[in-house]
Amino acid sequence: MAQLQRIAIAPSQLQQEQIILTNEQQHYLVRVLRLRVGDRFIAMDGKGKWWLAQLETEQAQVLEPILVKTELPVSITLMVALPKGNGFDEVVRCCTELGVACIAPVLSDRTLLRPSPQKLERWRRIAAEAAEQSERAFVPTILEPVTFNSALTNNVATHSYICEARGDYLHLNNVIKSDTSEIIIATGPEGGWTKTEIETAIAAGFQPVSLGRRILRAVTAPVVALSLISAATEV
Amino acid sequence: MAQLQRIAIAPSQLQQEQIILTNEQQHYLVRVLRLRVGDRFIAMDGKGKWWLAQLETEQAQVLEPILVKTELPVSITLMVALPKGNGFDEVVRCCTELGVACIAPVLSDRTLLRPSPQKLERWRRIAAEAAEQSERAFVPTILEPVTFNSALTNNVATHSYICEARGDYLHLNNVIKSDTSEIIIATGPEGGWTKTEIETAIAAGFQPVSLGRRILRAVTAPVVALSLISAATEV
């Protein structure tokens, strides 16, 4: 199965078999996803059209259109504070089944330990297995764990949400925009995000949202968030 | 925390501090939930009103109204084919967090093993812990595992859905009725329900639904279904 990274593009970026990349997209492809000139990736227009593309420097060459049946029409990045124990294995497995495009593990203020490089390999293997079992066309990207502030800088989308259990926020279900091409959803650690983290996220353009009136565990929240976004964008 | 069972009633059943029980409700309270005369339970009208009630024979005495903040306005029964291994622990934990009222484990045609009585005790302990951690007002009921046909007979609701991955069914998100007081959602075992099971469920009034285009594991499907129903009924 192809392990290709995905980015969302605006239809206006596609000109004569070339994709004109924005500065943010160049940064994301090269600095965050670590692609080099000549590497292939997938460009999605958020309306169900996908193309295989090859990275040049400030643009990319369209190689061919791709037909997908089991992939979501929208690119979802899950920014998730690393939970304690082995709980993250299950988050990777479930969210891959639900169609996530990219998982960005985050070291939050309340994250207890920094995972070993072996963990990252393990998560990527789990994602590959889950993508195959759930009959997806592509394996989601699992980024290296970074600090919350770095994650906010690295990942940019037109619609970004941060889930917070305590607080009088609108329910995610009431704010999901299904007519978008890229969504970032952030879920917190045991004990929740700190007040500073929520404020920093809001300053970075994230909308705080609720996942309901009960307190969800750090490993349940991402699965609930992905369930709601997948259903809202696929149906 | 109160370990009280819940049933949904129609407003017309409440007359002068008495709840006139239907034959189905009497059967459910006595034969399925194993309540005796004098036992207490919760009656919900599906519009956010709850009462503590005491079972008499064909009716129940209303003792007092109950104020709830973290419980769903609808009574959800999850009818779930037992997955292999310890996967059911996680199903009980997550679905309790999401507000399920009753979990009915089912021995389907493709269920491999019959669980020991110790398992049932274990699941009830997990449900109690998860209810407390998620700040729920009540602990969901975990019924004894029964055959699929018995489960169809025991559990009756105005809206019943059975999830099936393969098949050209409407997405659950498109059919959930939020203006109801009770919902049954059934999710299958590894490999899915058999054709006969789907046909039997449809004959019993269940509507077959999809949870999306990817194949979900038996332990993921209930969490996704509960996420969607909780959000649709709570928001």
From TrEMBL, chains A, B:
GO biological process: rRNA base methylation
Domain Ribosomal RNA small subunit methyltransferase E PUA-like per the UniProt entry, residue ranges: 21-58
Ranges where the Ribosomal RNA small subunit methyltransferase E methyltransferase domain occurs: 71-230
Gene3D superfamilies assigned to the protein according to its UniProt record, in alphabetical order: 3.40.1280.10
Domain of life: Bacteria
An example Gene Ontology molecular-function term: rRNA (uridine-N3-)-methyltransferase activity
Keyword GTP-binding: no
The EC number(s) this enzyme carries: 2.1.1.193
Coiled coil: none
This protein's UniProt keywords: Cytoplasm, Methyltransferase, rRNA processing, S-adenosyl-L-methionine, Transferase
GO CC terms of this entry: cytoplasm
Family note: Belongs to the RNA methyltransferase RsmE family.
PANTHER family hit by this protein: 16S RRNA (URACIL(1498)-N(3))-METHYLTRANSFERASE, RIBOSOMAL RNA SMALL SUBUNIT METHYLTRANSFERASE E
Role played: Specifically methylates the N3 position of the uracil ring of uridine 1498 (m3U1498) in 16S rRNA. Acts on the fully assembled 30S ribosomal subunit.
This protein's name: Ribosomal RNA small subunit methyltransferase E
Source taxonomy: Bacteria, Bacillati, Cyanobacteriota, Cyanophyceae, Nostocales
